[in-house]
Prior knowledge:
Helix content is 53%, strand content 13%. It is of the alpha/beta class. It contains eight helices and five strands; from the N terminus they run E-H-E-H-H-H-E-H-E-H-H-E-H. A five-stranded parallel sheet has the order 2-3-1-4-5, with helices on both faces.
Amino acid sequence: MNLFLIGLPGSGKSTLGKELAQMLGLALVDTDGEIISTEGRTIETIFKESGEVYFRKAEQNLLHRLTEKNNQLISTGGGMPCFFDNIEVMNQKGIVVFIDVPPATIHKRLIAQRSENRPMLENKTDEEVLLFLQQKYEERFPYYSKAAIHVKGSDIRSTEILEELKKKGLH
Ligand code: S3P
């Protein structure tokens, strides 16, 4: 079984992923982390030197490589489900969980911790970051909502996700 966590940057995929991987005895994979180590460059540098299209291709290739294996908790970069047929591949190869946190909550978290792995937020004022998140939420919702499990709120806990998995008979 593979479990995928999807959602906007800052929705808590990495933190929840760590907890869930431990609880479920799954190997933890972070797609951004995998790309950084394969490329030997930060995501910011990949975007600057090679462009977003290159990064999206790298994500797609990684997804195909990862889905050859099982028993992984795969925490995905926020855009991964929204390019190519990635969301369909995820749904075929595992259980997808949409971590649905309101953009305003994410905004509060992100302005507290800006990161070099989020080049899309670079050079934006706090207000622009909020607008960007709201826009991405709208644009990406049609992809994110294809997930088998949808957990929503400002304070999503790993136990809540486990409950949802149980309800669906998936754990
Ligand atoms: C992106 C999200 C980032 C990273 C890249 C692009 C996006 O991952 O993959 O900066 O398009 O939303 P996180 O969701 O882990 O921040």
